Amino acid sequence: MRFGLPVALLWALTGILPLWGDEPVVPGATDSFTTRLAAAGQRYNPQIRAHQTNYPLAVLVSRQLELLHSWGAMGLFGRDMATSLERTGRLALERMDSYKSHFATPGELSELAYLTANDGTAQPYHLYLPPDYTPRDRWPLIIFLHGYVPTISVLDPWLPSLAQ
């Protein structure tokens, strides 16, 4: 069966049809990140705030990268997503090594993570702080909870759109 160029290009962009084969997103980068993450796991101390806020995020990124690779989503958008994830993970490990805690960014929906007490897995959560947020002032807390939706994943979370 033959497909025209627009269909093949669309499939490549969405990851259905890889553009460059099955090589790593950034050759050698994922292996390096995995090695750094394993070393960080040996140093992880849950009593240190910078470790509490960065290590779980790096573990989550590792899981997201594994899912991205296992789904074969290495088209153009998959490559961009993997590069962005890898950068996020590397920054988390750098902050952990320099004892800098990671916080949500005001005006942005920030993905954060924590390690569960029951099985030690990294679980994502998202936090939105108003653009003019300051910790000195009191702010209302709005919690958005949802039930299980089988079509969501750590790569494609179900999030409400933010009204600007």
Brief characterization of the structure:
The protein has 164 residues and is mainly α. It is built from 4 helices and 2 strands; from the N terminus they run ααααββ. A hairpin with a 6-residue loop joins strand 1 and strand 2.
Number of strands: 2
Would you tell me the structural class of the helices and strands? mainly alpha
Helix content: 40-55%
Biggest sheet details: 2 strands, antiparallel
Report the order of strands and helices: HHHHEE
What's the total helix number? 4
Q: Give start-end ranges of low-pLDDT stretches.
A: 1-28
Arithmetic mean of pLDDT: 78
Write down the overall geometry: globular
Report the portion of residues in β strands: 5-15%
- The whole-angstrom Rg is 18 Å
- Through-space gap between termini: 46 Å
Strand order of the largest sheet: 1-2
